[in-house]
Specification:
single chain; 469 residues; alpha+beta; Cathepsin D, subunit A, domain 1; Rossmann fold; Dna Ligase, domain 1; ten-stranded mixed sheet; five-stranded antiparallel sheet; 10 helices; 28 strands; 35% strand; Probable alpha-L-glutamate ligase
């Protein structure tokens, strides 16, 4: 039995309301022109990205004529680049994309060329290729199909209805390690273009009108987001680069101020103290005359003496007696090193909890246990890790600690003490290997979900500038 049902005939006038759902454009007035083969869409700030095998283009458009303050960012794979002659005979080489056209309750794919139509009355032209065989054209009238409204661009539903467009993302990292590779792998798996940028090879053009970041002799392109993986040894320069991206207006997963504050252990403890976050009793002094008082402020031995610049457990010493503590402090002072003295939380028994916070939520947690005979639980020092269920108090403490520094990605290390959770450190570049392997969770994927939510292409309303005079 054959299906003889004929498709419904759509009647088009010379102008119709259409939508392009793949591009996040719910309402657009389009001119129908059977004299043109390919459809054309108004686009500006056109920029290519992606690999040579899978090139993509991103662009922005003003969907409402005369409303240059309303901007929609879009992106799509490039299917071709071809020469197109305009109505006045001028030829232009344009990028061609494919997108879904929706009109009158029906949808079908069409090819679209990208060009600046700011001087045209309509933001889109529908050519012959877009018009199906069962479309009847009535060139003497318009709006045969249901009329849409530009009011949709001013509703709260506009943001949630937007597609997850392909993004161009930079990972600031000098290392080819597990975390960097996972960020590239997961980003590309989600259709984004992810570029690893060596932080120390970046340099900046600092000026009020066109601030830029350059790399290997070229200006870096406009990124949708930057994921900073700044090593401790280059914190000042690395955060300056992040600050430059912030100046340009790029979304940075972790802000420069938060990275700087978290790396300064003294300042970090002062910030957490101000926020009333539980932590081991801590003391700091510059004068060698204050050693006894310094120890007294923290409590009795055993004590932890920690260099302010310590990372991965290096420069952290356990002094089991008061005499040992005095010796370590004198040795550090002899090296003109800055350090903290902290109470040793005995009940933690060489274990700590790493809570991974993404976008204000604890998405994974693991218990780290130090190697035999080592009070430090760092995985880099031979410690082991396993997934752990945390308490409500521990979850709230981790979230609060990340919020103090404004970090959207943070590894919060805390101890289980009798008086409640005590934060040891907040890491702004937490490694992904240990926690992904121990918990089985896709942390990189959760991070990209947070990035996509932040830079989703909802309409941007630009502030109108007042004309002089």
């Amino acid at each position: 039995m054959t299906d003889d049902t004929q498709p419904e005939i759509l009647q088009f006038g010379w102008e119709e309301w259409i939508s392009l759902p793949d591009l996040g454009v719910p309402a657009l007035r389009a001119k129908v022109d059977t004299g043109a083969r390919t459809s054309a869409l108004h686009a500006f700030d056109i920029e290519t990205f992606g690999s040579a095998k899978h090139p993509k283009v991103r662009f922005t458009l003003h969907p409402i004529p005369g409303r240059d303050d309303l901007v929609i960012p879009c992106s799509a794979p490039i299917v071709d680049r071809r020469e197109v002659a305009s109505s006045n005979g001028e030829k232009e080489l344009r990028y061609v994309i494919e997108s879904t056209l929706s009109v009158g309750g029906q949808s079908w794919p069409i090819e679209i060329t990208l060009t600046n139509r700011s001087s045209m009355a309509s933001r889109m032209l529908l050519g012959r290729q877009a018009l199906k065989d069962h479309i009847s054209i009535q060139a003497t009238d318009r709006f045969f199909q249901p009329e849409l409204s530009y009011d949709v661009y001013h509703t709260s539903k506009m943001r949630t209805a937007q597609p997850n467009r392909a993004l161009r993302i930079a990972v600031l990292s000098r290392e080819d390690n597990y975390s960097t590779r996972r960020l590239v792998e997961e980003g590309e798996k989600r259709g984004h273009t992810v570029e690893v940028i060596n932080t120390t090879r970046c340099y900046m053009a600092i000026n009020p009108m066109t601030p830029e970041v350059h790399y290997d002799g070229k200006r870096l392109p406009r990124y949708d987001a930057v994921i900073p993986r700044i090593g401790a040894s280059i914190t000042p320069y690395g955060t300056a680069i992040v600050r430059q991206f912030e100046t340009i207006g790029t979304y940075c997963v972790n802000p420069s101020a938060g990275i700087t504050a978290s790396r300064d252990k003294l300042y970090a403890h002062q910030l957490m103290s101000r926020a009333k976050i539980g932590m081991p009793n801590t003391a700091f002094a510059a004068s060698p005359m204050d050693t006894a008082n310094l120890i007294g402020l923290v409590g009795t031995a055993p004590l932890i003496v920690k260099l302010l610049e310590s990372t991965q457990g290096k420069g952290v010493v356990l002094a089991e007696t008061k005499k040992a503590a005095e010796s370590v402090i004198d040795a550090f002072r002899g090296l003109k090193a800055n350090f903290l003295v902290q109470d040793f939380v005995k009940e933690a028994a060489g274990e700590d909890i790493r809570c991974l916070v993404v976008g204000g939520k604890v998405v994974a947690s693991m218990k780290r246990t130090g190697a035999e005979g080592d009070f430090r639980s760092n995985l880099h020092r031979g410690g082991s890790a396993k997934s752990v269920r945390i308490t409500k108090a521990e979850r709230e403490t981790a979230i609060k600690a990340a919020r103090v520094f404004g970090l959207n990605l943070a590894g919060v290390d805390l101890l289980r003490a009798e008086a409640g959770p005590k934060v040891l450190e907040v890491n702004s570049s937490p490694g992904l290997e240990g926690i992904e392997n121990s918990t089985g969770k896709n942390i990189a994927g959760l991070l990209y979900e947070q990035i996509e939510a932040q830079v989703r292409p909802a309409p941007i309303r630009r502030r109108k500038t007042k004309s002089a005079g």
